[in-house]
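@channel sequence for tomorrow's demo:
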Amino acid sequence: MLWLQNKLWLRSSLWQRNSLWHLFGLYVLCAVLPACSTAPDAAQTPLIAVPLGLTEQSYPSDNVPTAERIELGRQLFFSAALSRTGEISCASCHRPENFFADNKPTSAGVEGRPGTRNVPSLINVGYQPYMLREGGVPTLEMQVLVPIQEHNEFDDNILVVVDRLAKDTAINAQSIRCYNRKIDSYSLVRAIASFERSLVSTTSRYDEYNIRGRAAVLTNEEHNGRNIFFGEKGRCGTCHNGIQLTNFSFQNNGLYDVYPDSGRFRVTKNDADIGVFKVPSLRNVSHTAPYMFNGSVATLEEVVLHYNSGGKSHVNKKPILKPLNLTVEEQKQLVAFLKAL
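structure tokens (generated this afternoon):
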């Protein structure tokens, strides 16, 4: 039933070895595609499906996705060889069954070291203009390096990782086919980024309503929730708008009086950015609990309660965030709409 709400269109050759997708009934797009061409043939179906209402992703000129680049990236994404102790992989935290997020507030790294932030979903990550919750990394290729070096994540060094992977003759051969070079930091980060760009969500019931004009796909309760979400009662659409249901701005939502994580301040060193984080997409939001930058809010009902209260009076809180005074019934309607995303 999951794919009826949010179809994850991925090439079958990339996933046929991964039984998780069969368990969760995700719809797979099958296509016969060239193996390692430098650019997609305009006459063919795009290698990576384009979500309803969006245009094709922009790709770096030296990393246009091909079927084999995505496949190499998939192998590396699921490989624990990227971590110092061989315990965890990218998929240990970005779990396919959780829409490439995690169902825990924070996720443990090597040797059980505690994470400090909630793991965001990677669905449609190729459309994001910058990475990480403080927006400090401009590309997916650069982002791949972050968990590898982080003490509480992989706790490794990219050069050591490459030396370890270089002993795998199959990985080396695949890297040569895709990037004309044995596995190294260049091909490693580009392959994983190519795989991550293939993780797209194409159609929700709200898309059917919003783009195709099929009003009947939403219940009356969901219609009422939509009116609250985008109207003056909720004002959620101020930040959560467009096809991605985010404007990718940086905001403080009044979660705390004092923040344990300084947020965007880590990048800018500007006091106005203390406790400020990138506005997340709400696509598939009912499948990616818990919520907030640290996973401290367990359910959508609690999320709505937070915003209904107006949040804490932090000096950097977005001024529009004030008590909403929604009734219990209106809160239920808002949650129902969120589940249609």
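heads up for whoever presents: Residues 32-197 form a domain with the Cytochrome Bc1 Complex; Chain D, domain 2 fold (CATH 1.10.760.10).
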